[in-house]
Write a structure and sequence with these properties.
The complex is a heterodimer of chains A (about 250) and B (about 270). Chain A is of the alpha/beta class. Chain A is built from eight helices and ten strands. Chain A has helices spanning about 45-50, 75-80, 95-105, 110-125, 140-150, 170-185, 220-230, 235-240; strands at about 5-15, 20-30, 35-40, 60-65, 70, 80-85, 160, 190-195, 205-210, 215-220. Chain A has a six-stranded mixed sheet, with helices on both faces. In chain A, α3 (about 95-105) packs across α4 and α7 (about 220-230) crosses α8 (about 235-240). Chain A is globular and about 50 Å long. Chain B has helices at about 5-25, 25-45, 65-95, 95-100, 105-135, 140-170, 175-190, 195-205, 205-215, 215-225, 235-255, 260-265. Chain B has about 270 residues and is an all-alpha fold. Chain B is about 75% helix and about 0% strand. The chains are: A alpha/beta (about 250), B mainly alpha (about 270). The interface of A and B includes residues 57, 81, 90, 103 and 105 of A.
Chain lengths: ~250, ~270
């Protein structure tokens, strides 16, 4: 890794026309840290993700991924990044294996290494037996697992997850939340998880509350509770966002 | 720059497109049915109505079916280019385009790879059409079937680049109908695909000018001459320049700093 900081956001602002979507956003994420980006709809979470992944251009402020400037050193920065988007991005007509092979090809991995990495990641998620099934045949939870496996194939340093549990049943949600938290600790992986579901937050997580494009709180769960002077995360969230629905 | 990475990524993109094409039989059949209907029905009906003078590359009087064949190959590639464009808009709406756009390679390279993949598919379709036409007694000299391959490659790239460019402007899948009405049909009908330029001039000078400068006309002429083992330099230059212009504009369209992505709100 080029830097001890996995993700650094400095003075980031972004507008759609005249409407400000992000306003002077600042935060850092360390390796091994699971950071939950909590905010109501329209808070600016998806805009922030589009800027980190360089789908949008950074015009004001700076984003660094493992020390690489996303705007200036885009390819080096993107090599360090694994992403799970909110919408499914798998090809439904291809098998699990074919989808993952496509990803390894895009990342320039050779056949032998690709086979090995695919097996490792699918086995960890109990999906290896289903590798020859078409994605269309999988349920929502299993598709999400495949997407997480895909995001990890090239061993990124930062994993971005944009509301990955939306629309999943409770057991599928719980298993994904638990798996990602284990990954952060076990693999020293930095995780940025955008969510509006409070029960996905673990006590040891780093919490960022985003509201109307501004960071309202940034710290450990305890620090955020103290800052908002609230007994629970839900109360703290309500206080910080003036009662808007998460 | 890791060349192996570029090669693997390009092959991955091409393989995915070819695989989808092979497994979607209805797409293959519908791509062939359209030009075959034109050949068997439309051309047969017009055979008696249209008299064609001897013009290069033909050295003798030809049947209308023979004249129209290069235009129909162009039609296959035109529709294929637009189909690729449609699939780009679909991928963007469905989100799978994002996976391509966040991979650590330059965007121009990723778009070029997509373009090559689509062109490869259109060449397969064109040869399948030529094979059926051969059994229908529309037979070019054997070397023409070799010479036409590079022409098909360039034409496929040019029309695919136009499709890419259009896809960078199209906000939603529903807007694609407009492409049919405002791009595909005018390009095809205002070209030398169905009638030679001199014939168009007889009816309208304006139409003649539009057809002459239509890149699709030049593409059809490139295919027509190549199919008879001849090189049409003017058509080659025109098609090549059109490809460069369309491709450059498409790359700008997909550039997050300069293009339409910002206005549309995502890849």
């Amino acid at each position: 890794m080029n830097s001890s900081i996995a993700l650094s956001i400095e003075d980031l602002s972004f507008s759609y026309g005249g409407k400000k979507a992000l306003d002077q956003v600042n935060f850092k994420i360390q390796p091994g840290e699971c950071t939950i980006l909590l905010g109501p709809n329209g808070a600016g979470k998806s805009t922030l993700f589009s800027l980190i992944t360089r789908l949008y251009d950074t015009r004001e402020g700076r984003i660094e991924l493992c020390g690489f400037d996303v705007k200036q050193q885009t390819r080096k920065a993107l090599e360090k990044l694994g992403v799970v988007f909110q919408q499914t991005t798998l090809d439904m007509d291809l098998t699990v294996m074919q989808n993952l092979r496509y990803h390894t090809a895009l990342h320039g991995m050779g056949s032998k290494l690709a086979t090995q990495r695919i097996q490792q990641e699918l086995e960890r998620l109990n999906m290896y037996e289903r590798r020859f099934e078409k994605v269309r045949q999988l349920n929502g939870g299993h598709r999400r697992r495949v997407e997480i496996a895909r995001a990890l194939l090239h061993k990124p340093s930062l994993l971005l997850l944009d509301e990955p549990t939306v629309g999943l049943d409770v057991p599928s949600r719980q298993s994904i939340v638990e798996y990602v938290h284990q990954l952060a600790v076990g693999e020293k992986l930095a995780v940025l998880w955008a969510s509006h579901l409070i029960d996905e937050i673990y006590p040891g997580d780093h919490l960022i509350v985003l509201h109307k494009g501004q960071v309202k709180a940034n710290g450990t769960v305890d620090e955020v509770l103290k800052m908002a002077n609230a007994p629970t995360i839900k109360d703290a969230f309500n206080t910080l966002t003036q009662g808007e629905q998460a | 720059m890791n060349l192996l990475h570029y090669w693997r990524a390009m092959w991955g993109i091409i393989w995915r497109e070819l695989w989808r094409f092979v497994t979607q039989r209805e797409r293959f059949i519908s791509a062939l049915v359209r030009p075959l209907v034109w050949l068997f029905v439309f051309a047969a009906g017009f055979r008696a109505a249209l008299g064609l003078a001897i013009t290069p590359p033909y050295e003798t009087y030809i049947l209308y079916e023979v004249y129209i064949t290069p235009g129909l190959i162009g039609m296959i590639q035109l529709f294929n280019g637009m189909q690729s464009s449609l699939s780009m808009v679909y991928d963007r709406e469905m989100g799978s385009m994002r996976i391509l756009m966040v991979c650590p390679l330059p965007r121009w390279f990723l778009l070029l790879s997509k373009l090559l993949a689509g062109t490869g598919v259109s060449i397969l379709q064109a040869y399948a059409f030529l094979t059926i036409a051969w059994f229908y007694d529309i037979q070019a000299p054997w070397q023409g079937y070799l010479w036409v391959a590079p022409a098909l490659m360039l034409v496929g790239l040019m029309l695919g680049a136009l499709g890419l460019l259009l896809s960078s402007f199209i906000k939603q899948l529903e807007n694609f109908a407009g492409v049919m009405n405002f791009v595909i049909f005018p390009m095809f009908f205002m070209s030398t695909a169905l009638y030679p330029l001199w014939k168009i001039k007889e009816s309208s000078a304006l139409l003649h000018n539009l057809a002459q400068y239509n890149p699709f006309s030049q593409a059809v002429e490139l295919i027509r001459f190549a199919l008879y083992g001849q090189f049409n330099q003017a058509a080659f230059i025109y098609t090549f320049v059109a490809f460069i212009v369309f491709m450059a504009a498409a790359i700008i369209g997909y550039n997050p700093s300069k293009g339409m992505m910002m206005k549309k709100g995502g890849a």
